[in-house]
Amino acid sequence: MKLGYLGPEGTFSEEAGKTYDKIIPGKKELVAFATFHDILFAADKGKVNEAIVPIENSIEGTIGVVTDMLVKNVDLKICQELVIPVYHYLLAPKGVKLSDITDIISIPQVLDQCRDYIYKHLPHVTLHLAHSTSSAVQQVATSLDKGHFAAIGTKTAAELYGLKILAGKVNAKENKTRFVVLAKRDHARTGHDKTSIVFAIKRDRPGGLHDALGAFASRKINLTKIESRPSKKSLGDYYFFIDMYGHRTDKLIAAALKDLKAQAGFLKILGSYPRAK
Amino acid sequence: MKLGYLGPEGTFSEEAGKTYDKIIPGKKELVAFATFHDILFAADKGKVNEAIVPIENSIEGTIGVVTDMLVKNVDLKICQELVIPVYHYLLAPKGVKLSDITDIISIPQVLDQCRDYIYKHLPHVTLHLAHSTSSAVQQVATSLDKGHFAAIGTKTAAELYGLKILAGKVNAKENKTRFVVLAKRDHARTGHDKTSIVFAIKRDRPGGLHDALGAFASRKINLTKIESRPSKKSLGDYYFFIDMYGHRTDKLIAAALKDLKAQAGFLKILGSYPRAK
Predict the structure, then answer these.
(1) Does residue A172 contact residue A48 with C-beta atoms inside 8 Å?
(2) pLDDT tens across B230-249, in order?
């Protein structure tokens, strides 16, 4: 079974892939891709059986490039979810001290998540941007000025590229990433499920979203996530991503989705899957 | 009157500042800051009288760093809004042809907005990240390999740093940015106003957001924006940003806000201001 993930080796996505393999054992070959586009298209075209991608972070919110593709570009369903605590590490070559650091490199989202630590302990450093935390670690290990540069990345990447940990868990405390496994089919009912949908409301009348949410509120269905994303059509035009407890084949959920379909301008069921523990 | 904006010279924020000066004439001294944090803190502490910042883009959605600061870090009100069409340009030194380009540099958001153009016309280029479009343009003009690098940035920056336009309007078609002007006080009622609020709902019961929106739906108040942002406390915990037609001193709006305050865990009125034309 081939599982696509965002590489190169040492990324947080690779760690998620390994965690998934522990939770649901089975022979999995992890296949690295360079971008989320490449991963999702590979899964859509059957070049990998499944793809594991982050969909939501407690600091950053929705990973827009993934959700946008699920809406418009691919026909994939969510069949599993994993919630993984995120720890970022400040990494430098051996012999370099915290007080030597004048420059830090990582991806924008991670620098943002570690802002409080940087402001407090290294307020005068210059921040540099990389395409992945793994590439940031690699650059600090190989090409960048070795006495002064640190990367923020994973423990795995530090081991892979021979950097040492200058400071551990430098990110905001409550930092979790929710990964989903995507495949051609979602998961059968387990009795302890979640369902994800995306919809758009017809515009230009008051109360549209209120009415849409009424389909769930009137049935006391618990929504665990409500996020909006711009539709990219015009300002003020949104897609709404909603997660709820229950399986799409449950009577109440099925009735609510039927109600919503009747009034929404667009509705796509992204899948039902067992709740993460 | 001092107006803070995100510099350096040649940024899109500077263009917005100049547009604001045309719409509402008055002696304004534009003061450049390096980050949104610096701008908003300067306005909060009275070092500038007003600040102009982007708050929402039709492709990217909410500018999280700005909205997060409005919720938690500063006591500023929205007193004006401007909606400005965004045009990005592919820029290179004179003599360089489109077919010479192997590398493009810009900020992540702009590269994302121009993805379709890049995939179609320059599918094999390597993408590089800068901290501002202006700095990307400057780097292409001064330090990067001149035969092969192009920057994506504004027309103003091209003129400032002596680059020529290789391709115009390379971004997605419907691309608009909404800027807001922040000050210590919002705007008096004009009869043609908008009001912005942010609230959080009490958790762990079905229908919370539905009930909150009921305060507006029952009064037929038209919501022009509904966006969620993670509260950064835990997964599934959100702030909701809502814009509506009307002034906070209008009878119906005042009643709806009173209703909402009674049921929301948190409510902050970000200000009332004239609608952009």
Answers:
(1) no
(2) 777 777 778 899 999 999 99
Of A60, A213, A229, the CB nearest to B213: A213
Per-residue CA distances from B27 to A255, A256, B20, B239, B274 (Å) = 60, 56, 11, 37, 20
What Cα–Cα distance (Å) separates residue A194 from each residue in A79, A273, A276, B219? 10, 6, 9, 34
In-domain check, residue B54: yes
DSSP character at residue A98: G
Looking up tokens 């523990």 gives A277
Q: Is residue A111 part of a domain?
A: yes
Domain CATH code at residue A258: 3.30.70.260
Q: Which domain holds residue A141?
A: 89-167
Contact A234 B178 (CB under 8 A): no
3-state secondary structure of A35: coil
- How close A238 comes to chain B (CA, Å)? 8
Distance, CA of B141 to CA of A5 (rounded, Å): 37
ipTM > 0.90 for the complex: no
Is B102 noted as a catalytic residue in this protein? no
Does one domain contain both A255 and A157? no
Looking at the complex, does the CB of residue A172 fall below 8 Å from at least one CB of chain B? yes
Q: What is the CATH number of the domain that holds B72?
A: 3.40.190.10
Of B149, B183, B217, which residue constitutes the final position of a domain? B183
Which residues of chain B lie closer than 8 angstroms to A83, CB-CB? 235
- A93-129 pLDDT, tens digit per residue, is 999 999 999 999 998 878 888 888 998 899 899 988 8
CB < 8 Å from B in window 2-41 of A: none
* Partner residue facing A235 (CB), from B56, B206, B210: B56
Distance from CA of B193 to the nearest CA of A (A): 16
Number of structural domains (chain A) is 3
DSSP-assigned beta bridge partners for residue A22 = none
Q: HSE of B170 in the Cβ direction (CA atoms, 13 Å)?
A: 29
Return d(Cα B119, Cα B158) in angstroms, integer. Answer: 23
Facing residues of A229 across strands?
A239
C-alpha–C-alpha distance, residues B10 and B65, integer Å: 21
Same domain for B98 and B57: no
* Inter-chain touch A61–B229, beta carbons under 8 Å: yes
Instruction: Tell me how long chain B is.
Output: 277
- Of all residues in chain A, the percent with pLDDT exceeding 90 is 58
User: Are residue B117 and residue B251 in the same domain, yes or no?
Assistant: no
**Token pair recorded at residue B127:** 């993408």
Question: Are A42 and A179 members of one domain?
Answer: yes
Q: B14 φ, ψ to 5°? A: -65, -40
Helices B251-263 and B208-217: crossing angle, nearest 10°? 160
